[in-house]
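REVIEWER CHECKLIST
Item 1: Sequence provided? yes
Item 2: Single chain? yes
Item 3: Sequence as submitted:
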Amino acid sequence: MRIIFRCDPMLIEHLPRPIPARGALPEWLRAMPATAYSAIHGRDIRTLKQCPPVVDAMTYGFMVLLPCDVVVDKGTFSWDWQIPEPVTQNHPRAPLSFHTPGQLAGSPFATPGQAALKFNSFWTIELEDGWSLFATHPVNREDLPFRLVTGLVDSDRFSDGGINFPAVWTEPGFSGVLGKGTPVAQCFAVPRAAQQLEYEVFDEERQASYARTVASVLSTPGVYRKRFRARRGRSAGE
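Item 4: Structure as written out by the authors:
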């Protein structure tokens, strides 16, 4: 999958580039122990750090990053970002803008009187024909003080304008700095081909295979990682 990012020529030296998601793993994942004692099991067991599906989800696709520090003081957002004037008309200069509260009315994201954030995009994104861009909150990043609203954009067609990422601020009492380079959206390409769902019952061979596989997983650590996990190639630039 070839993904092309473009930006205004005046900003190319001022913008953090989207990066493979594996390069934005949080410090808490790096720091957490690989095992922890379980009173239920009476022994140490593996933590999420050693769960391949969790880690693979967090390293999938690429991250769009916050382009500058944003100072947050209990619902007030400010920044001091000195960048050249873009030469492209209708191009944003602010890292954030906002959706009015009414745009969330009737949704579970709505909080009376609270606007939604909009992380402005400074990169356009072009995908290959037949593919769309799935943009969501960085996977398993409950530590971030916002929640991105998930969206799907046909970026093989819409590739001349920036994609803005709406989000809800979830920590009204937060005061601090949302740092430059904070991942704001995790994105990956998905095909638009229709899915065909099929339903079957286990035949004898599948029953036997199920029993063997589950018994192996329950009795031996690392079975999924060693026998079933696919090797993941690195994207160009990593």
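Item 5: Key structural point noted by reviewer: Helices lie at 27-31, 52-58, 204-219, 223-228.
Item 6: Recommendation: ____
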